[in-house]
Amino acid sequence: MSVAVRVIPCLDVDAGRVVKGVNFLNLRDAGDPVELAHRYDAAGADELTFLDVTASSSDRQTTFDVVRRTAEEVFIPLTVGGGVRGVDDVDRLLREGADKASINTAAIARPDVIDEITRHFGSQVLVLSLDARRVQGGTTTPSGFEVTTHGGRKGTGIDAVAWAKEAADRGVGEILLNSIDADGTKEGFDLELIRLIRAAVKVPIIASGGAGEPKHFPSAIAAGADAVLAASMFHFGPDDMIARVKESIRKAGFPVR
Hints:
Elements: E1 6-14, E2 17-22, E3 25-31, H1 33-42, E4 48-52, H2 64-73, E5 78-81, H3 87-96, E6 100-103, H4 105-109, H5 112-121, E7 126-134, E8 145-149, E9 154-159, H6 160-170, E10 174-179, H7 191-200, E11 205-208, H8 216-222, E12 227-230, H9 232-235, H10 241-251
């Protein structure tokens, strides 16, 4: 790996506040998104990801106002997702100051939207947010993982690896791979899931879900992640947590910014 690994804090936003739960449930308040974004920018984050976690499930648009105020505070790339349904939504987000848009539910419902957005803006602006979990309740998929929607609350029966490959073939610039099983557990990333997706696609993978301490990050990179994302440990940890994570990655022999 020659490109520096990116360390990305994630702001899960609900009704204008940053929240965090376990397996997407029991959300608790973690602060003001604009204040947190400013703090992470100053602390050395390489990018920020801002996800309006209830935008699709409650069928409302991303909070554009919060996006704009967050973008004004940071000088690092900002990816925004939640409620992104098409070209117009991406256009609005880019105008409000986002650098990239993340799509999830809408792409599953109508995969052609990926082609439309990337044709209009280029692959570099579109991130596929893929919430995957091990199959359960009698569902089977070739990889053993299925795509979920609505913050992990709804299974689709779609094979996670096949969907990642299709989205990459259609032109998404990178994949934000979130393990629903590991989310918020602080027990480490789902390395099996990362390896499976890495073997299927060439686009960059952002590993998400399960980080609890700095030592968890190098193994995700070794499994094939190009960037690593976390929420809880940055929101509720010490102020130098980003620096600690980067040091752990560096000590493991991976290039980091």
